[in-house]
Design goal:
With 84 residues, the chain is mostly beta strands. It has one domain (8-77). It contains no helices and seven strands. A four-stranded antiparallel sheet has the order 4-3-6-7, with no helix packed on it. Strands 1-2-5 form a three-stranded antiparallel sheet, with no helix packed on it. The protein is elongated. 10% of the residues are buried.
Length: 84
Amino acid sequence: MCRCAGRGLVASVPGCTSRSITITTNPPGAEVTINYRSVGVTPVRVGFTHYGTYRIEIRKEKFQTLVKEECINAPAYGYEPIRS
């Protein structure tokens, strides 16, 4: 069975932020689709613009296909502070 192993946010240049999800499998080489769009084979890192729910499908011959809806939430620093 292929498993979705990780995701993360990566900061690039100070003041700029890039958002990405990294998908790895054991064994590597599984085909990955996100929201019905092929994004490559594992390990794969895919940039995204919006937080929310993504449909992730991981396929590899001779392994069970994994389909999962993954909610990617904005980090705490992504929200405006509450002011009174």
